[in-house]
Amino acid sequence: MLRAGIVGLPNVGKTTLFNAVTAQTSAVTANYAFSTSKPNVGVVTVPDERLAPLAEIVKTKVIVPASVEFVDIAGLVRGSSKGEGLGNQFLASIRETDTMIQVVRCFEDENIVHVDGAIDARRDIETIQIELALADLATVERRRERVQKGAKGGEKIARAEFEVLDKLQPALEEFQPAKSVSLSEDERAIARNYFLLTMKPTIYAANVN
Q: What pTM, to 2 d.p., does this model score?
């Protein structure tokens, strides 16, 4: 089952989107940062008009549609990669997902506070990208230290891993996502073992007026 994490800054509409796609109202929405301290989780079946005809062909009454698990993750802020605003906890929740849906605030409402004081979608996207890249950079640097000795000693596996880390680190230092780095299939298989946040596919959801 696909696990999609809904992410973004505080007060951008993440929980509102979660309640909409999961058709529930149990997740609380509030006009203050970190109103979602623990992830909300909901499972949605995917409508597929092909299932009924297929069930008739194979003579079965059991129909199991595909499903998506949505995880509403509390807002990230500047410094989340260093633990600001319970950032470590929220980043760990993102790490467990397969893909991210980043909610970006594009609506004006003086009654709903923006964590940075003004509406700027591009800045908000960059803020999240920087925090995710910094978290990934820390992961890559720790792994690099572990395999460096083996790579210098000529260990084949360690050397292959070190080469992948050497490609990833410069991009992350420039706050570019790991998925933007050109890797071979074998190198990409190695990179998947790090569960990098910026390697995940991302959908941007613009929350408009």
A: 0.81
